[in-house]
TrEMBL record:
GO CC terms: extracellular region; plasma membrane; side of membrane
Listed transmembrane segments: 355-375
Keyword terms: Cell membrane, Disulfide bond, Glycoprotein, GPI-anchor, Lipoprotein, Membrane, Secreted, Signal, Transmembrane, Transmembrane helix
Chief localization: membrane
Gene3D superfamilies found in the cross-reference section: Zona pellucida, ZP-C domain (2.60.40.4100), Zona pellucida, ZP-N domain (2.60.40.3210)
Name listed for the protein in its UniProt record: Uromodulin-like
Signal peptide stretch: 1-20
One Pfam assignment: ZP-N
Domain of life (superkingdom): Eukaryota
Annotated source species: Acipenser oxyrinchus oxyrinchus
Length: 376
């Protein structure tokens, strides 16, 4: 019988080189930017580190931040290797609110340490100022010094940055506190997901959105309605208001419908003015709402939009229009209720009474409306 105590088991383990030409080193080299090289950090693991012979200035004043003022996000950052050349710790980057940490991002074969914030008051410590025509977002990019032993190579760096935007219907929503807004996601073939928004404004320049949960209007006042789509090309696409109408209930298929815009054109009652439609990513109209809907003292507003490809078709409506033959989906942008201040119906009457003659339609069955994407 074989004595197991005298058996020697030989295991053949392939030798893995830790030289500069092994597999790990090769993979490391492929992930490094042009300013970096592969170094062994712990005798086994390779990592990208800044080269020692870079020509960056060691003066703190030479740091030049990159700033991107986007439609929804603001991004700023510094070159990782430039930061280290002036004695800053690239892993310490954050905005005024330290929870908004920096992250490494490769751009044009240079590793940047970036920080991102949304266009909201207080987000990541952001402050907002307005001057009547523009809104400015201000924050500070912070980086700590590098310490080796007991030696501090440079003090910390605080780089203030700001982005200014023209004050319009979209930017005014960013600075308003709890604006009234309706939002729906749009899937555009070949382009991904975009967002359509509708909001109600107090002034004809569309820069003062209503911010309470319920809008109350005097019967003589005008309501300004703005619709826009985010995250698509303004040079190529335009937003077209296909239909906008009011109902006495939040149900867009309510059989009582007061059409303000139908088949892209305004109702001819004289209470609606279209400021923009089919020209850009914004559409806007104004309506003397409670003159238009007559005896209704509380209504909901529904609007349908078409994302129109200006390179493939004419997006600007030609009015009066023929009845649309497009098949529309049942997506909807809805805002309400909108209430008439001081409107008092006679005793025994109902807010479901008929409004102005010709201003409303009762349609049997389901109403298939609203979000129409017509891209060729």
């Amino acid at each position: 019988m074989l004595n197991m105590r005298n058996v020697i088991i030989l295991l053949l383990i392939p030798c893995i080189s830790v030289s500069g030409t092994d597999v790990n080193s090769t993979l490391c080299s492929e992930s490094c930017s042009k300013e970096e090289e592969c170094v062994m950090s712990d005798g086994v693991t390779w990592k990208c580190a800044c080269q020692k012979n870079l020509n960056y200035s060691t003066e703190m004043s030479s740091l030049t931040p990159e700033l991107v003022c986007g439609s929804n996000l603001i991004k700023t950052g510094l070159s990782k290797c430039h930061m280290e050349s002036v004695g800053l710790n690239s892993s310490s980057v954050h905005l005024l609110n330290s929870s908004c940490q920096g992250f490494e991002d490769r751009k044009e074969n240079i590793t940047m340490v970036m920080a991102v914030m949304g266009r909201r008051e207080g987000e990541c410590g952001t402050t907002i100022t307005t001057n009547g025509t523009h809104v400015t977002y201000t924050n500070t990019l912070h980086a700590s010094h590098t310490v080796v032993g007991n030696v501090i190579f440079n003090p910390k760096a605080d780089v203030q940055f700001a982005c200014s935007y023209p004050l319009d219907m979209q930017t005014s929503l960013h600075i308003a506190i709890n604006p009234i807004v309706s939002t729906v996601k749009i899937a555009i073939t070949g382009l991904g997901i975009s967002t359509a928004k509708m909001s109600l404004y107090q002034t004809p320049n569309y820069t003062e959105p209503y911010t309470s949960e319920r809008v109350t209007l005097p019967i003589e006042s005008t309501l300004y309605v703005g619709v826009f789509v985010e995250d698509i090309e303004g040079d190529r696409f335009a937003v077209v208001l296909e239909s906008c109408y009011a109902t006495p209930s939040p149900d867009p298929s309510d059989p009582v419908q007061f059409f303000m815009i139908q088949n892209r054109c305004p109702n001819n009652q004289g209470f609606i003015t279209v400021q923009e439609n089919g020209v850009s990513l914004n559409s806007a109209f104004s309506v003397e709402l409670f003159k238009f809907v007559g005896n209704f003292d509380s209504v909901y507003l529904h609007c349908g939009v078409e994302v129109c490809d200006k390179t493939a078709e004419t997006c600007t409506p030609s009015c009066p229009a023929r009845r649309s033959t497009f098949v529309k989906s049942e997506e909807v942008l809805t805002i309400g209720p909108i209430t008439c201040a001081g409107c008092r119906l006679p005793p025994g009457s109902s807010s479901a009474r008929t409004g102005l003659a010709g201003a409303w339609m009762i349609i049997g069955g389901l109403i298939s409306v609203i979000l129409h994407l017509h891209l060729l």
